[in-house]
Fold each of these.
Amino acid sequence: MKNSFVPLTTIKIIMFQKTLLCLFLLLLPTSIMAQGMIDGFMRGEGKSVVALSYSSESYKDFYKNTTLVQEPNLGRITTTSVSLFTAVGITNSIDVLLSLPYISATSDQGYWQTQSSLQDLNFAVKWRPLQVKLSELGTLSAILACGVSIPTTNYVANAPVAIGHHSPSADARLVVNYMTSFGLFAAVQTGYIRHGDVELDRLSLEGNMKTNVPDAIDFSAKVGYGNSEFYIDAWMQSQSSRGGTNIGETDASFPSNGISFTRLGLTGYYPLKFIAEKFGLSLSGATTLNGRNIGKSNRISIGAVYEFSLWN
Amino acid sequence: MLTVNKKIKSIFIVCALSLLVSIGCKEQISSPEYQTLVPQNNDTTGGSWKMYLAASPDDIILPIPNATSSPEYTAELSALKGYINTRTAEQLSTAKYWSSGAVLRWNEIARALVAKYNVAPPYHADSAAKGNPYPVLNPPFANPPIASRVYAYLSVAQYDALVASWSMKYKYNRPAPKLIDNTIENVISVPAIPSYPSEHAAIAAASCEVLAFFFPKEKEYLVELAMGHQDSRLRIGANVQSDIVAGDSVGKYVSAKAIARAKTDGTGAAGRADTVRYPIPMISTVWKSIELQPDGAPLRPGMLPSWGKVKSWAVPNVDAERPAPPPALESKEFKDALAEVKTIADSRTREQWRIADFWADGGGTFTPPGHWNYIAAGLIRKNNMNELRAARTLALMNISIMDAGICCWDVKYVYYLPRPSQMDASIKTATGVPNFPSYTSGHATFSGAASTVLGYVFQSEAGTLSAQAEEAALSRLLGGIHYRFDNEVGLRCGRNIGGWAVKLGQADGSPQ
C-alpha cells in the first residue's frame, strides 16, 4: 500500500472493493426469489465476509395479476427475516457465496396462521473471466454467476400467508461492471432463473400433488459511489415471469403464480471502526413500483458486516 | 490454488450450460393418460335396472333400427368407412380420450367447471343499492352444496341414459359394424355390446345438456365437446350414424327429465337470506359472518341459508336426519371443545397442516364433493367398470353427497353455532373460515355419505374409505375451523345418509 508507484486513486479502489460486501445484503429478503447475492465486485483470494441482517417488508396493496387490490381478510402482510450471509474469495477471480434466511410472515387481519421457518439455502459461484483497465479513469469487468437455491425445511408454500414457494431453483447471471478510479461505479446485470416443481399438500384438478413454477428473467442496474469511509448505491431491478397463473385463478396454487415486479432501492454502508477494524453497518430500503401477483411492498434492512482474511 | 481454480471453472461451465440447455425444454405437468377402458363385464341385464328419472326405458320412443342387411344400413357402413379413412391424428387422439371411460371424462369436465366457478361473488356497490350486495354475476357460484347438485344431476342423467341404452341394445341386438363388415377394424378396443343405440352418444348428450343447464355460459364449449365425443365413435368404427342419433335421443330425453327436476328442486330460493327455514335460533349466541368486507360493505349473508329445503334424493325425510343440538355455549363441554381447537391451532404441526390442506378443497377447487368424485373415479378405473356400472356408482354416491349437503345445511341453520374463531379470535387457521355456521361439518357429512356408498360398491376398499372419511372430518379440527363434535356428529349423520343410498342400490336390480 505504501508503494509510491501505486496512484492514490488505485489505493482507494482497493479499499473501496473491500467495502462492497454490503452490497450482498441489499436484496436478501427477496431471497424468496433466490437472488440478490451477485454484484459486480470480487472479494479477492483468501478474503471472506460474514454478514447478519434483519429485514422487514410489508404491504397492504397487492397485484392480483396486474391489478392493485386489497384483501380485508388479510389486511397488512408483514415479512421479517434474519439472514446469514457469507462469501469467500477462492482466487482473485472466483468467489463462492452462501446465504440462509429465517423468515416469518404474518397478516394483521383474518385468521391465517403465521408462518415462520428457515427458508431456502442459496449457494452461488461467481467467476470474473474478464477485467480490462480502460484508461486511467476506470476498469470494466464482466462476471458470470451461477447459483442454486434449495428449500431447507418443509415450510408451507401454498397459502395466502407464506414465507416462500418451496421451489428448488437454479440461476445463471451476467454482470457487467464499470468502476471509475474516483469511486463512482455502474453495473448492469441480467439473469435467468429456472424454478423446479413444487410438491403440494393437495390435489390439483388432474390429481397431481405438484405444480409448475414459472421461470423468470431478471434485469437490474445499479449506480453507486464508495470510498474508504462510506458506500452508497441506488438500484433498479425488474423481474418478469415466463407465463404462470394468476392469484385467484381456477385451481391455481400460489407457487404456480407468475410473479413479476419492478423495484427501486438504496443501500448505504458505514464502517464502525471503533468496534472492529473490518466491521460496519449497512442500511437499505426498497420499494415496489409495479408488479404482477406480488405485494406492493416496502422494505427496510439493517445488517452487521464483518470481514476477515482466511488466508493470504 | 490453480487446480481449485480450474475445477471450479469447469463446474461453473457445466452448471451454466445445463441451465441454458434446460431453458425452453421445461416439462409441464400434464393430465394423466388413461388406458382404453376394457370392461370387466358387460352387465347384459343392465337395461332392467331401476332408473331415477324415468319410470322405464320404454318411455323413450326410438325408431326401430334398420336391419343390418338393409340397403340403408349398407349405406351407413360405407359412410362409416369414409369417416374412418379421412380420420385425422387429432380425431384419433380425441377418440382415445373418450375411450378411456366417457362417464369419467364428463365427470372430470364437471369437476373442472366447478373449480372454475367456485369463486365467492365479491361486494358489488351498484347491486347493493338494490338490496343484493353480493350478486352472483357469473352464475353459478359453485360452492360445495351447489357443486354436489351438479355432480348428482350429471351422474343420474348419465346413469338413466345408460340404463335406457342398455335396455334397447339388448332388445334390438344390433351387432357392431366390424361384425357385419370385417374390413372395418377398431384401432381402439370397443366393448363387445350391441351397438344400437350408442352408449357414448347417450352419455355425451345427457352430460352436455345437464352441464349446459348448470353452466349456461359454457354451452358452446360443452356442445363442441359433445359433438367431438359422438364423432369419435364414427372415426374408430365403433358405431354407425343411426346408432349415434339414437344414443343422442336417449341422452336428450333423460337430460330433459333431469333439468325439469332441477328446476323445481328448491335451489332457486335456497340462497335467499329472507327464506331462512328457522328464523329464530335455538341457542343464545348466534353465528354471524366473520368475513371482513371492504369499507361500507355489509356482512356477507351466510351461504345458502335455505339449502335444507332443497329436494333430497334417497333420504325420505330430512328432518329425521337432524342430530341433537350442540353443547350450549356456556357448558363445560363446549368450553372444552373450544379449548381443544385453540390448543391445536397454537401447536399445529406441519403434518396437521398438510391434512387440513389436503382435504380443504376450498375456493377455486372442485370442492369436497369433487374430491370424492376423484376418489371414486380412481376406484372405478381400478376395477375396469363398464360405463353403466361406473354411472351407477357415481349416481349412488353423488345423490348421497347432495343429500348430505341438504341435511347438513338444515342443521347449520337450525342451530347457528358460531365458528371457533368467532368465539376466540386468537384461534388461527390453516384454511379459510367458511361463511356459514359451524355445526355440523359439511366436510364430515359429505365424506360420511360418500365413503359409505363407495364402501358398499367397493367392499374390499371399505376400510380405507372409512379411514379417508375420518381424516377428512378430522382435517377441519386440525385446520382450526370446527369443533371436534362438529366433525364427529357430521360424520355419523353422513354415514346414516349414505345408508339410504345403499338401500336404493340394493334394490335397483343390479347383481350387486
Amino acid sequence: MSDRLKIALLLAPALSIIGILFFGGLLIGFMRSFNYMPVIGLTDPDLSAYAAVFTSKEFYLSFLLTFHIAFTSTVLSSILAIGAALLLRRTFIGRSLINFLFQLNLTVPHLVGAIGMLYLFSQSGSFARLGAEWNLISKPSDFPAMVFDPYAIGIILQYIWKEVPFIGVIILANMQSLGEDYESVARSLGANKWQAFIHVLMPLIFPGVLSASIIVFAFTFGAYEIPAILGASYPKALPVLAYQKYTDVDLAARPEAMAMAIVIALLSALMIYFYVRYTRRRIRS
Amino acid sequence: MVGKESFSVRSFRVLTGIVLITWLILPLIPLAIWSFAKGWFFPDLLPKRWSMQAWDYALSDTAGVIDSLWLTIGISLAATALSILVGIPAGRALGMYKFKGKELVELLILAPTIVPGIAVVLGIHSVFISMGLNNTVSGVILVHLIPTLPYMVLVMSGIFANYDPSFEAQARSLGASPIKTFWHVTLPAIMPGIIVGGLFAFLVSWSQYILTLLIGGGRVVTLPLLLFNFATSGRNDITGAIGMIYILPGIIILLLTAKHLSGRSGAVGGFGQI
C-alpha cells in the first residue's frame, strides 16, 4: 500500500466525523441564516435574518456584553495566571497544595463553578451573610448586585476562578522548561528583577500565554450555561440569546438564531487565525 | 537569582499563597454545606439545622439522579470509546507521516477545539430532525464527538510522534499477522496515551451542557442538565448534593493522572473545554 493511500485511510474516519458533524453543522447553520434550505422548500436566499439581527438594539447590547465578558475575563485571568505561575515556581509552604488545587479546579466543570459563585455572591449569599454578621448591611438588598448584574461581575469572577489555573498550569510548565538561566544572565549583566521579568522572561513565555488566552477568549465568548446561570435577563449573553431565539415558539426567529451563531463562529474563526499565526510553533513541538 | 530572600518577600509569598488557596476552594464550600443543610436562611452564616435529606433524595431510586448518573457515564464512555477508535489511526497519520496538506488537516481537526458548541449545534439540530437523531442518546453521543475527538487525535499524534515503528516491522518479519502486531506491539506502546487521552476525553464529554440540551431536547437528561434545573429552581440543598456527585469523577481521574497534568503534555489544552 502506498503511503498516500495509507495516510488517507488512517485519517478518513476522523475527518469524516469532524467534516460531517462540525463543518456540516456550520454549513447548515450558514445556509439557514440566509433562509436557504432547498430540502424544505426554501429556495430563495435572502438577508432578512441578518437585517433583523443587525437592526436590533438587543443584539448590539448582547454582543457588547459578551465581548466585555470574554475580554475582561481573558485579560484578568492571564495577568493573574502569570502572577500565580511566578509564585508557584518557588518552593514555599503550601506550594504543593496550590498545585493540587490548580489541577483539581481544572477538572471541575464550569457549571459547578457558576453555581458556587451564585451561592457566594448573590444578595443572600455567603458574602452578603458575612456583611450582615459584621453589620455592614442590614438586609440582602443592601449587598451590591454581583450576580444577574449589568456588568456581569459574577460571570467574570467564575471565569477567573476556572481560567487562572488553566492558563497558570500552561505558563508554569513553560517556565520550568525554560529554567532560570536566561534571567540569571540578564541579572548578572546588571538588569534588576523587574527588567529581567519584562525583557527576558515575558517574551519567552508570551507565546504560551497567548495560545492559552485565545482558547479562553473563544470559550468565554461562546459558553452558554455560565451566563445562563449568572447573567442578567437583559441584555443576555449572545449564546443565551441565540438559544432563546432558536427555541422561540415563533419558528421565524430560527434564522435569526442561526445568524447569531454565525457571528460567534466568525469571531472564533478570527481566534483560530491568531492561534495559528502566532502560536503555530507551540503545537508543532 | 539565588541569594537569601528577605523575610518580607517570603511572607508576601506565603500570604498570596493563602489567598490563592482560599479562593480556589471557596466556591465549592457553600455547595458542600447546602447539601447537608435543612433550610439555611439569611443571615445565618451556617445552617441552624443539618440533615441528610438532600442526599437521601439524590440517592433514592425515585428521584432519577442515579439514573441520570448512569446515563451520563454511559454517554461519556461511548463518546470516549468512539474517540479512541477513530483517534488512534488519525493520530498515527499526523504523528508519523509528513504529507502534503498536513497543516490543513491539523487545522480542520483543531477548529472544533476553539469554535464554541453553540455555533455549530443549531445547524446540526435542524439536520438531525430529518434523521430522527434528535432527542436520542445516540444523537447526543454523536455530537459529543465534536469536542472529544479533536482532543484525542492531538494526544495520540503526540504519542505517535515519539513512536518507533521498527518494532512493528520486526514482529511482521517474524511472521506476526497485522492484527497480532497491533495487539502485542503497537497497543502496549501507545497505551499510556490512550489512557490519558481517554480519561480527559471522558471529562470533556462529562462537562458538555449546550450540546446535550439541544440535541437531547430535554429527553436525554444528563447530570449537568439535572444540576442546572435544580440550581435554577432554587432547590439549593439538592443542587449541592448533585454538584458533589457531579465533580467526583474529575477528582478520581485527577488522583489517577496527576503526574500527566503538568501542562507540559499537550493533554492539558483540552481543559479549556471543561
